[in-house]
Amino acid sequence: QVQLVESGGGLVQAGGSLRLSCVASGSIFSINGMGWYRQAPGKQRELVAAITSGGRTNHADSVKGRFTISRDNAKNTVYLQMNSLKPEDSAVYYCNADISRYGGSWLNYWGQGTQVTVSS
Q1: Contact 7/77 with Cβ under 8 angstroms?
Q2: For residue range 35-51, what is the model confidence (pLDDT) as tens digits?
Q3: Residue 30: enclosing H or E segment and its boundaries?
């Protein structure tokens, strides 16, 4: 069994910062790409940022210069540092990863989500 568990969400004022973490656990052989998505009420889930196993990153235009994705491969963990938060950043943030289990094929996994609320 493989699990992705997010943490670090919460309520913050506009202009503030939060750091999200997502730990992958279970019978993991290898992790390829990892990423963060978000979904606000009434909106589709959207990609916020992604990072390859080699550390190459991609950030959505709406968060460039404010959010930074990083990962610690030794800890099977991906982070999202969020600075200069805006009310429109409020959403449930989901962790996503492509994971290979021992003796298994590559599968895509989602975390349960963590709420981020930015007050104006």
Answers
A1: no
A2: 999 999 999 999 999 99
A3: strand 28-39
Q: What is the DSSP letter of 55?
A: -
Three-state DSSP string of 76-117 = CEEEEEECCCCHHHCEEEEEEEEEEECCCCEEEEECCCEEEE
CA 23 to chain CA mean position, Å: 10
> pLDDT-derived band of residue 28, with 50, 70 and 90 as boundaries?
very high
Question: In the block, which residue shows the tokens 């429109």?
Answer: 88
Residue 91 pLDDT > 90, yes or no?
A: yes
**Average pLDDT over every residue of 21-35:** 96
| Among candidate residues 52, 44, 49, the one with its CA nearest the CA of residue 98 | 52
List beta partners, residue 107: 99
- φ/ψ of 99, rounded to 5, equals -130, 140
Neighbours of 113 (CB within 10 A): 18
Distance of CA 64 to the CA centre of its chain: 15
* Residue position matching structure tokens 């290898």: 30
